[in-house]
Design a protein that fits this description.
Layout: H1 2-25, H2 29-36, E1 47-54, E2 60-66, E3 69-75, E4 80-85
Antiparallel strand pairs: 1-2, 2-3, 3-4
Length: about 100
Amino acid sequence: MTDFFIDLLRSFLALGIVLVIVLLVLPYFPKVLSVLKLPTHSEGSHVNIKRVIPISRWGSLVEMEIKNKLYVVYFTNTSATILYKEDEKDNSINSSP
């Protein structure tokens, strides 16, 4: 019976150590994430993200430029649908299938 209480005490001690470490490291997470954020445009890149508009909890509307052509794409967790694609000839709207 005493082994059970010793193991239980060790478990609570380990949990306490983990919680203290998390609380000490947590304030630095936003700084680290902002450093790791990918740029929207870089030298030599053919993709430029102009705007991201959250539409719902699971979907976002993204206005992007790929090789100097404008695209408006609706992204969800499982799919991406092209809503607008700029055409070189007459700038008409092309719907994706």
